[in-house]
Amino acid sequence: MINTLLLQGYRQQLASRPSKVAFVLDGQAFTFADLQARATVLQQTFAERRQLRVAIALPNCLDVACWYIACASAGHTLILMEPEWPQATYKAALQLVRPNIIAGGPGAGIECDFSAAAGNPDWYDETNFAFLAGFTSGSSGRPKAFLRDSNSWLASFRCSSREFDISAETVQLAPGPLSHGLSFYAMAESLYAGATFVTQSNFSAEACITTLQTSANSLVVVPTMLQRILDSYSKELNGSCDQRHDGAGSELKFKAIVAGAKLSSHLKQRFRATWPAAQLSEYYGASELSFVSVNHDHEDLPDDSVGRLCEGVSVTTFDSSGLRLPASTAGTLHVRSAMLASGYLKQQSGAFIIAPLSGTDGWYTVGDRGHLDAQGNLFLTDREDRMLISGGLNVYPSSVERIISEELHNRGFGENLEHCVVLGIPDPEWGEKIVLILAGNKLQPDSVYSADSADFAGIRQTLAGCFAGCLQKHEIPRLLFVAETIPLTTSGKVAYRELQQLLPELTQLII
Q1: Which pLDDT does position 504 carry in this prediction?
Q2: On the chain, which terminus has fewer CB atoms closer than 10 Å, C or N?
């Protein structure tokens, strides 16, 4: 029998409260009965066939939820694709997964091809079926399809429900794209709990604030989105004489759940000062690993850590040769838990197979580096594929970015700073020259971080003071690039490859 627990809360609401609001898009509300009616229509596309692969490349819309409900109910594999992929990437993904049904994408409608082979018995099990496939680029930049089975997804639901207190009373706002794991998971988790899910067709910080003030009690975002919500809220308060804003921050109570990148200490402090009654949590995980660790404000864990391990999760580290390292020694993080993906979907001799996750000796990794301290707190260093080598020594950009960003904020120069990014450029002397990109929509090259200087002397002096005693010599950036904006992925993360290509167009200074 197909595992029906994935939609447990959804079905309970259908039976007892079908008129309850389940899904809200840009203020338009849809009930649980509305979702079921649309999912029933979509299920007719299956025509009682089993074990199909159903790919969706949709913008944020009701059909994302309804295709999920239809596939989870009937035992088909739902494949999440990015609607804004370049044509070449889209074609490569289709060749990899060979879907029987495609919804959205360049065709914008629903296309069916039932001649393609259905689910392979080697990886299909009705009691624990591979119901979801997503894509991750990894270090190559090419789409790589991972599979999640229903049992691992249920284990993730139970973990997040416990950690973040998600229930039928939750109104969960996730304004990011549903084609990405963070917001899609929040939607699926809401259906599992019988909660109300709220999203936007396009991210609007102002609309997020309104929703938090009127209905939502849970917010799921990446750090960039949280920063823009805070910026918008500060601007709204400073520019309004309306008494309704007086004390609004102290009264606003909600849970903010942040993932996708490490939260800076400055952003945490700003959140606490703006919304002292709200709760802030960040978690570390990955599409293939699900939840690994969580850092709740109320547990008073180190700000620069990604928290304690989630229940049932074990972590160890290995060196580059595959040797397991002693406890608390930094290395490549490897994970064990019931929440791991089944593996990567591949084709071999015309048949579908599951290739195992990368790992060593039964432990699995996505290439992140870090360590556990003696108290069991997890610290991240960087991804292996972002590591730079300058002067023959390893440089971990995330660590350097965190230090510089926090120093600039501590010295009072971070008010307009939105992004602090470290990259490497080829250099005959250093191998890779370390460069720093500072970005913010109010940054101008003749006034960056220096109100007293008409040239760039103030910038150099400020950064020199920032670097002294904080960075090792080989970690210090040699060039500074200044920009008002930098390219971001659709999920709000820095698009490093695109940014690297844009460097020649940015204002450049020698530090």
Answers
A1: 86
A2: N
